[in-house]
Amino acid sequence: MKIFDFLDRMSNITRWSQRYCSQDESVLEHTAVVAFFGLLIADKYQLNKAVILEAAIVHDMDEIVTGDIPTPTKYANKEITESLKALETAAARDISYTIFNSDDIFNAWLNAKDSSLEGDAIRIADAAAVVFKVRKELNVGNRTFLEIVPNIKKSLIRMEGMVNPLLVSEIEDLIHILIDLEKTKC
Fold first, then answer.
1. Which of 114, 136, 151, 162 has its CA at a distance of 20 to 30 angstroms from the CA of residue 104?
2. Domains and CATH numbers, the chain
């Protein structure tokens, strides 16, 4: 079955390629963490859980083709960003049809982080998964993750102005977690 190969590939692609990790994190593991954070947000704000869970599960499925492209590379300049977005879209479309034989899966990927409340929730859940990983690494003594905390905070602050005001407190909570981590790990 194609799904076994798909899941195997998701479990073998590691994230954080430009950073030492005490424990590797696979795309599949990250996807599960995003799904749990998404479910928590959906429950708290009475959002559509089915939409959020589907979006969380597929939001990074393109990475079985592209790998996890580090943020500094992905956003190095406009041409690179546009080219990578086209590659990710082609990969997601191919996966949707070859693995799932479904337009619905491609559309779920395409709209996973749209401007709806559910899309905002997925963006926040994705960021929460990053904060979770940072916290996990710092808790086992991997101080190299302290170096990226300021950039993550900046990204979260930018995100505050882009999401529905109803969900801003979730981002503020993540920022406070990072501030607390900096205080205790410095």
1. 162
2. 2-185 (1.10.3210.10)
